[in-house]
Amino acid sequence: MSWTRTELQSGILTVQVLYITDLSKVQYL
């Protein structure tokens, strides 16, 4: 499988969103 630039960017965005949601969960706790 070859990774295209858009696929890498979308993957990074997904990781950032999950990371931000995890931080918000920790803050609410």
What does this molecule look like?
- The mean pLDDT is 83.
- This protein has one helix at residues 5-28.
- 83% of the residues lie in helices and 0% in strands.
- With 29 residues, it is mostly helical.
- The protein has one domain.
- The chain has one helix and no strands.
Number of domains: 1
Return residue spans where pLDDT drops below 50 for at least 5 consecutive residues: none
By DSSP, the count of extended strands is: 0
Outline, from the CA principal axes? Answer: rod-shaped
How many alpha or pi helices?
Answer: 1
Task: State the share of residues found in helices, binned by percent.
Answer: over 70%
Q: So what's the oligomer here? A: single chain
The H-and-E topology, N to C, reads as: H
Structural class: mainly alpha
The main β sheet shows up as: none
Percent in strands: under 5%
The average pLDDT score comes to: 83
Termini separation: 40 Å
Rg calc:
13 Å
